[in-house]
Amino acid sequence: MKIIHSDNAPAALGPYSQAYEANGFVFTAGELGIDPQTGKLPEGIAAQAEQACKNIEAILEASGLSMMNVIKTTCFLADMADFKVFNEIYGKHFVSKPARSCFAAKTLPGGGLCVIEAVAAR
């Protein structure tokens, strides 16, 4: 087992890792749409979803994998009214169509509008 870290994704906001690899699988933490350069969330669901996907991609690249290796995602939205826009952005990045669950969450850390976590297979 090993911890995965990328400087091209935001640092963890608490006592956890960006991702962990075990038995040929990489499990990412839930990624907000925080810009790793500024440490801030961009405005709007489209921009946050785009950045969250880029953060997942950066973490997977640090493990030697790509978005094509993702087999399962779990997504959280602060407002299900954002589902259509979120889905459009998500679909551009997760073209392999991994299994997915998507839930509304009452509030997300830092006032985020979406969070994505992924499981990828080696």
TrEMBL record:
Top-level taxon in the UniProt lineage: Bacteria
MF-aspect GO terms: deaminase activity
One GO cellular component term noted in the UniProt record for this chain: cytosol
Gene3D superfamilies given in the database record: RutC-like
Xref: SUPFAM superfamilies: YjgF-like (SSF55298)
Signal peptide: none
Similarity comment: family membership: Belongs to the RutC family.
Matches recorded under NCBIfam families: Rid family detoxifying hydrolase
Name of the molecule in the record: Reactive intermediate/imine deaminase
Native source organism of the sequence: Allisonella histaminiformans
